[in-house]
Write a structure and sequence with these properties.
Blueprint: H1 2-9, E1 18-25, H2 28-39, E2 42-45, E3 51-55, E4 58-65, E5 74-80, H3 84-93, E6 97-105, E7 109-115, E8 121-127, E9 142-149, H4 152-162, H5 164-168, E10 176-180, E11 192-198, H6 202-211, E12 215-223, E13 226-232, E14 238-243
Length: 244
């Protein structure tokens, strides 16, 4: 029943809209315990060894085991596209790079992994039966993606060209910002995306993160889109908590 509800509530996302997040973890069971308590998520078998994270039956994320111990422990933000092959060609022509060419994920959709010209990693998702978030922009769900980069002007040009309608089109309401690395992180930190999850009370959520073995990477600060803190889970995956 939860699966049916999740499928029913999924939106159709335009190209360039953040439509999904997934975590690659050494220990998915430990991830289920951490995020289940932090966000109230429940879990359901998904594809391969991955699990859907559900909030009141709606799909909000996925947790997957790392297939190679050398891979980073990380949350990845994916952007929607109706044609992953075509977007991949545009992306490489604009100076980005493909880490993995578009590949099918069963009947769920087509995925690819890429970097922008600065090296920040993100995903592409062409939907099949899985369109993306069943719920977003609420406590316990994805609410924002922030790209920390060394060159915001270049990032704005790259993503503005790649995802123009989602960022700047008529009626656009993007959940995607760009900021200088040094605004939050040390200058030596490589460019990267940070997935933001909503919380009702940031201070309470930070207490829960610490109690569960996570740590605070960047203490609370005020951004244009809300009050934010960047944290890591108990396996080292970074993400942000956002109170609006």
């Amino acid at each position: 029943m939860a699966e049916n509800r999740a499928s029913t509530n999924e939106e159709t996302y335009g190209e360039g809209v953040p439509c999904w997040v997934d975590a690659q973890l050494p220990d998915v069971e430990a991830g289920k315990r951490f995020y289940g308590e932090l966000f109230g998520w429940t879990f359901q078998e998904a594809y391969g060894s991955a699990v859907w994270a559900l909030l009141d039956g709606d799909r909000v994320a996925a947790l997957a085991p790392k297939t190679d111990g050398r891979m980073p422990t990380v949350w990845t933000v994916s952007f929607a596209t109706p044609d992953a092959e075509a977007l991949a060609r545009r992306l490489t022509a604009a100076g980005g790079r493909l880490i993995t060419d578009p590949y099918p994920v069963g009947d769920l959709g087509t995925a690819a992994l890429a970097t922008d010209p600065g090296g920040a990693v993100f995903g592409l998702w062409q939907p099949g039966t899985h369109r993306g978030f069943g719920r977003r922009r609420a406590p316990g769900t994805f609410v924002w993606a922030e790209l920390y980069t060394r060159d915001t002007a270049a990032a704005n040009a790259f993503y503005g060209d790649l995802f123009h309608d989602a960022l700047f089109g008529s009626g656009a309401a993007p959940d995607f910002g760009r900021a200088d690395v040094t605004e939050v992180f040390p200058a030596e930190m490589p460019p990267h995306f940070v997935a933001h999850f909503g919380v009702a009370d940031l201070d309470d959520a930070l207490g829960t993160v610490r109690r569960l073995g996570g740590r605070v990477q960047a203490p609370p600060f005020t951004a244009s889109y809300g009050r934010v803190a960047v944290v890591t889970d108990n396996q080292g995956a970074s993400f942000a908590l956002l109170q609006r």
